[in-house]
Amino acid sequence: MEKKIAELLLDIGAVILRPNEPFTWASGIQSPIYCDNRLLLGYPEARKQVRDSLLCLINKFCPNVEIIAGVATAGIPHAAWIAESLNKPMVYIRQAQKDHGKKNQVEGPLKKGQKMVVIEDLISTGGSSVACIEAARAEGAVVEHCFAIFQYGFPEALKKFEEAHCKLTTLTDFQTLLGVAKKRGTITVDQEKLLQRFTANPRDWLLNHTPSHL
């Protein structure tokens, strides 16, 4: 599954590897990779494959799930397709509480004690995802598992999920994607080394290195 999803994301351009010309994330991190899983919305067969793969994992690890939650905004459509397939209720979780109306952070009907799985599209540093999980727990949900399409595998993200006592399962990850890209000839050996440094230390991977010379 991991290789197939990695190939799919590369095929539709949802993941772009650009070690010679890094992207700048909102956090300020200079990244040699950009992942935009929102592109899946425009590819019916690809998004069905992602949905079916997520369903397979949910049925395997959380067969007694009672409600599906999508993290706003990119996790919402995938949560909706999963909830429809399982005939389960769904909610979505905002990154922050609204400052007007009912000031909700969790939108939709949620009963205390319901077993919930949280759906994300992408896990980077893990901070926003864990914050949403804690928000759902504060409303009474029992959240022990988060599923996502892709993760970078940053140590700090894995630590945050561990500290939150929430298991993280993704369809594919950075290491699998690098393997696929290398096999295809999309990246060179030197570029692969640079990309490996990024996942080990995303904030300082460019120190003493000049990507344009690779």
How would you explain this protein's 3D organization?
This protein is an alpha/beta fold and 214 residues long. It has a single domain (2-206), classed as 3-Layer(aba) Sandwich (Rossmann fold), CATH 3.40.50. 39% of the residues lie in helices and 22% in strands. It has helices at 2-11, 44-61, 76-86, 127-138, 155-163, 174-184, 189-200, and strands spanning 15-17, 23-24, 30-31, 33-35, 67-71, 90-93, 106-107, 115-123, 142-151, 167-173. The strands form three sheets. Strands 7-6-5-8-9-10 form a six-stranded mixed β-sheet, with helices on both faces. It has a two-stranded antiparallel sheet with strand order 1-4. Helix 1 crosses helix 6 (174-184) and helix 2 crosses helix 3. The longest helix is centred in the first third of the chain and has 18 residues, at 44-61. The protein is globular. The two termini are 31 Å apart. The mean pLDDT is 91.
In summary, what is this structure?
This protein has 214 residues and is of the alpha/beta class.
Strand order of the largest sheet: 7-6-5-8-9-10
Helix percent reads 25-40%
- CATH topology description: Rossmann fold
Biggest β-sheet strands, sense, barrel: 6 strands, mixed
CATH class: Alpha Beta
Helix-strand sequence:
HEEEEHEHEEEHEHEHH
| SSE-based structural type | alpha/beta
Number of strands: 10
The CATH architecture classification is 3-Layer(aba) Sandwich
Mean pLDDT equals: 91
The tally of helices reads 7
Tertiary shape: globular
**First-to-last CA distance:** 31 Å
* Count of separate structural domains: 1
Strand content: 15-25%
Residue windows where pLDDT falls under 50 for at least 5 positions = none
Whole-angstrom Rg: 18 Å
Oligomer: single chain
